[in-house]
User: Fold this.
Amino acid sequence: DMLIKKQDCTMDIDIKKTKEYYQTHSLCDCPCCRNYYAQVKQRFQLVDELLSDFGVSIECPDELGSVELQDEIQYILASYTVCGKILELDKYEIDINDGGLFLNIVIGDYYIPNEQKTDYFVVTIYNINLPWVLNEPFPTSVPYKNSFFNKIKSLFSKK
Assistant:
């Protein structure tokens, strides 16, 4: 185990177990996810270094939330599992300018769907936009009125 401190946030990380997790966990095979895996490591070197410090493989997120735009995919969030626990503070937030984008990264003690059986915490990157690079048709995008944001908005609007 290794203690890592980022500002006021102290984390106890099992890097070996985290690396093993990333060698065995399964990836989604949908086009949007494969588009992300294909280019994220080359595009975001600072984020890749940050995740590597935790034993996390940037090409293997546990959870990706995406929306198809005109000719690119907006990845609203990309969440990664880290084996270990946060000892001090329950959340750490950092903004990084990387790959031409302003990214918000949150390290927190919350649940995401994953294959982890022991203590873990989550690193989530917000606001990644990536071009379509796969040699296959762009996924047909849903008309804006049916988009994810409007579904969420409709849940909270008065009937």
The longest strand covers residues 72-88. The beta strands are 2-6, 9-13, 63-68, 72-88, 91-98, 101-108, 120-131.
